[in-house]
Specification:
Strand content: under 5%
Number of helices: 6
Radius of gyration: 21 Å
GO molecular function: acetate transmembrane transporter activity
Pfam family, one: Gpr1_Fun34_YaaH
Number of strands: 3
Main location: membrane
Strand order of the largest sheet: 1-2-3
Protein name: Ammonia transport outward protein 2
Helix content: 40-55%
InterPro entries: AceTr, Gpr1/Fun34/SatP-like
């Protein structure tokens, strides 16, 4: 089934009750069905998933019970990292907006980090970082929170905060950069800042390993980008910074790809995106 299905963002680890007629929720949009052969059994708590019933057609997520045809698969276009029940709220999908905001701002800065056409001044990025990649992306994260999507809220709000922080560091009025009298100290401090985001992004990489190839690739390449940029500041190494810019450009296009996946459908586009599901390794079935 094409990855561009139109159901809104799915909730993650929801504790809400779901009505029995979920097949017609969200203004009549179809819910992408989870393959009937899938089974996983993790440890405990709300993340525990087991199956029951004839042909394992009933799935238990924590304390909640759903039929397989009521559940939503991982979908990069809505920032849903894995099997989950649909949201009870009837809002639009803020994922494409947040992903587009992140993509454009990342593309601008990465082109400069890669020294494309010899440009090295980052001034043009500040406006996009504060308003599009920052404020708008932060808003989409809050909308994801209203849709009960923990992953989407965490990712979009956090990277919105990253871009606003980047803008503040580079705006003289805040006095952050000017507080460092030694230029090398500023480079090291910036390296620490980027290293923290490398660690945070690696956490997101681990939580997308059961999703789709496009979704996982976004955070994998973003983590490499942060790692190279942090090394570029700490070493220091202009080659690492430039390599980080190249990986950042790749990351931006993957983010646009996921945004398009959540936006395009057979009703509005001739070209749609088909999901490539990553393999999910099954745990041993309990007696």
């Amino acid at each position: 089934m094409p990855e561009n299905h139109q159901n809104p963002i799915a909730l993650v680890e929801s504790n809400h009750s779901i009505h029995s007629s979920l097949a017609s929720v969200h203004n009549g949009h179809d819910i992408e069905k989870y393959p009937s052969h899938h089974h996983s059994d993790s440890h405990s708590g709300v993340s525990r998933i087991i199956t029951s019933g004839v042909n394992d057609e009933i799935i238990h997520i924590g304390k909640e019970k759903y039929y397989k045809n009521e559940l939503i698969k991982a979908f990069g276009g809505s920032l849903n990292p894995g099997l989950s029940a649909p949201s009870i709220h009837k809002f639009g999908n803020p994922g494409p907006l947040g992903l587009s905001a992140f993509a454009l701002t990342t593309f601008l800065l990465s082109m400069i980090n890669a020294k494309a056409m010899g440009v090295t001044e980052t001034g043009i990025v500040i406006g996009a970082a504060m308003f599009y990649g920052g404020f708008i992306q932060l808003c989409t994260g809050m909308w994801e929170l209203a849709l009960e999507n923990t992953f989407g809220a965490l990712a979009l709000s956090s990277y919105g905060g990253f871009w606003m922080s980047f803008g503040a560091i580079n705006i003289p009025w805040f006095g952050i950069a000017s507080s460092y009298t030694n230029e090398r100290d500023l480079e090291v401090a910036t390296g620490f800042f980027l290293l923290g985001w490398t660690i945070f992004t690696f956490m997101l990489v681990l939580t997308t390993m059961k999703s789709t190839l496009g979704f996982f690739s976004l955070y994998f390449f973003l983590d490499l980008t942060f790692l190279l940029l942090s090394i570029g500041q700490l070493a220091p190494s202009t080659n690492c910074t430039r390599a980080g810019g190249i990986f950042g450009i790749i990351t931006a296009f993957i983010s646009w790809y996921n945004a398009y996946a959540g936006l395009a459908n057979p009703e509005n586009a001739y070209v749609t995106v088909r999901a490539i599901q990553l393999p999910v390794y099954k745990g041993k079935k309990r007696n």
